[in-house]
Amino acid sequence: MKKIAKIFSALLLSLVFALPLAACGGGSVDLLEENIIEDQYDNYYEIFVRSFYDSDGNGIGDFKGVTEKLQYVRDMGYTGIWLMPINPTGSYHGYDVTDYKDVNPYYGTMEDFDELVERAHSLGIKIIIDLVLNHSSNNHQWFKDGLAAYRVGDTTSKYANYYNFSTIKDHPGKTYRQYSRNPDVYAEAQFDQAMPDLNLDCKDLRADLKDIIEFWIKTEKVDGFRLDAALHFYEGDNKKSAEFTKWVKQTADAAYKTVHSEDPNAESFIVGEVWSGESDISDFFEGSGGASFFDFQVAQNGASSYVVSTVNSAMHRLDPKPASAASSYFSSFATVSDKAHGCVPTPFLGNHDVGRIAGTMTRDENKIKFAYGLLSLYSGSNFTYYGDEIGAIGRSSSSGGADEYVRVGMYWSDKIPVMYPQSLKTATKIQGDALSNYYVFPSVEKQLKDKGSILNYYKLCNNARNAFPALMRGTPERVANANENVLVFTKTYKEETITIAVNFSNKTETVTDLGSALTLKQGICVSGSVKGDGTSLKIPAYGIAILA
To answer: What's the whole-model pTM score?
Structure first.
């Protein structure tokens, strides 16, 4: 595979030893030389355009705003961006699409989007966009024409078959909603009245969807898609839903290969939302022909989350259990890998549908950092929700759980008002004391200047994943170690083997006999720094050491 070397530091890897990489204080952190491989493994950053950055001062984030901040995204070590829905819509969130081949006018023009993609690619950042194929808006012309035809029994209109229309409301295992009276017409709509489900068995619809996929890849040059609600493509039928995902993957790959014909290994990146347990996720991985699926068991999907439960166990102040936390965490590697069936796992900590990780970690800075450190050691393409890298909270005590509060604006600096997406046309600007409801930690501007910030911890983790291909792709193997509070394991990918030591205890721990030939390459610590070499390391509480 083609390799791209992007140098972020003048220091060669062989000269980087035990640096106080996570120590507090001013200035930037020390980064390693990257070794980027062009494949399906990346650090992805999820962006809600409306709340990210406003380039023209109208209170709504836009494409130009994202373009202005692309260098920030790349400097943070992200090599891919997932843009939440960018199509025309009737809502603030965008999951009720009214036109699949255009962009939301509040975000800018198609030319603005083209500029964003071109600039991202020039920085080595892939762009995937939300593709909402489980349902459309009830204001989409397909639905309007289909409903009108179905009402009068017009069998010549193909659009009457684009949706699951019926004169009967009750369908076991499915949700039908009423869209017409006299005569009564219902349509399957699992999530909302405004989002009727598409009939994905319809051949004419498939032809239109193929055209849409090819448009975004061939004309607009995106690198793939995030598939919303993949679990529900065929409600209650994982096999058929996975087969449809496979069709999307094959269609996207064929288009992508024509755009990147010079690269025989060119492949689109498709990641689906299967918000369910391990068995369902495994079914989709196995049957979808190379697509990826978000691993909700890694995320904060309840108390059993691999990362959240590990952090809570290791950091429980009254009854610390570092040894058991270490063992449980390492065992999750195999679980995540096995369910992916040879495809690329996609672990994450949070997104727009769940509370932000900073809130789940009880606003404890060390917990927030350590959670991302543990996430970064999984193989796969991991995802970060914008704002998580600064410890954004998202929901205040008065929010009532409304998901708009998980999509409040990025806190760039004290000089730039933060946006809250209250409605389609306007966005309330959060200022003054109200900031404390959403942001416990400082702005991007301030955290960039603090080596010990959450932001710089995230940057170090991403940099390590970019510097060591084995960290993203390698096969893990646990290494026997006398200190049970420290997990030691190797990850091997092709000719590269790295050794990783993770301290799960709340005090500095010493590790010996790691191997005289090993050199400390990177220390990632919630505070303090790793000291020593391969023969003997002193790792601060919840610190991570990478050796080679």
So the answer is: 0.93
